[in-house]
Specification:
Helix content: 25-40%
Largest sheet: 8 strands, mixed
Low-confidence stretches: none
Number of helices: 9
Radius of gyration: 17 Å
Oligomer: single chain
Number of strands: 8
Shape: globular
Mean pLDDT: 96
Order of helices and strands: HHHEHEHEHEHEHEEEH
Strand content: 15-25%
Length: about 240
Amino acid sequence: MMTGKVADLVYRGLMELGIPFHSAACERLELYCARLLEKNKVMNLTAITEPAQVAALHFLDSACVLKSAPFSGQSVIDVGTGAGFPGLVLKIIDPTISLTLLDGQQKRVEFLSQLCGELSLGQVTCLHARAEEQAQSAAFRDAYDYALSRAVARMNVLCELCLPFVKPGGQFIAMKGTDSDEECTQAAGAANKLGGVFLPSVDYCIPSTAVTHRLIRIEKTAPTPAGFPRRFSKITKAPL
C-alpha cells in the first residue's frame, strides 16, 4: 500500500506503463513532490502546483522516457534539467542509471543536490554549467549513452547543445509535443553535421490523462566534429 496520493498515482501509472520499479521509488517521488512544491514557494521551479498534476505531468511524463530505450546500467546526462525532469525521475525509478543533472542556474543545482542527498541517491552528479561550454570538456564530450532534454528550444538548437555529449552508438532523446514534425525536418541537417541521425519517434499518452507527447530520438553515429557546439549566441542566431 502506498503512503500518499502522489505515490499511489505514480504506482498505478507505472503499472499501466509496464515499467519495472520498486515501491521505494513511489515513496521517493512522494517526497520529491513535497520538496519541489515547498521550494517552489521561494523560487520558480514549476508552474504545476497541484500534487496529482505533478505526479502525472512531471513524474509519469518523465517515466515514459524509459519505454523508448534500455536505460538500465547506462550513463545519462539531462541537459537543462531545471527541477530534475526527466533525469531525476528516471534515476529514482531505475537506480542503476549513472546520472548527470546539468543546469545553468546555480539555485536549481543546489536544490537538486540537496534533494538527491535526502533521497539517498548514489551515482548522481549535479552540475552548474552551460551545456555549450561543458561539452568542450574531454570528460564529457562523446561520453554518455544518453542525453535527454525536456527543454523548449527548437530541435536544431537542441541538437547542437545535446549531441556533443553522446558517445557513438548512444542516443539523444528530446521530449516534445506531437506537433514537432516540421522542426525535426528542419533539424535533420544539423543532426547529420553533429554526428547523428534521426530514428523513428515514439508517441505516448501520459497515464490518467488525455495528454499525448512525443519522444524525438537521434542516434549518434560518429563523434561530433571539433568546433561544435558553438557559442550560445551563435547557435541561436545562426542555427545549423
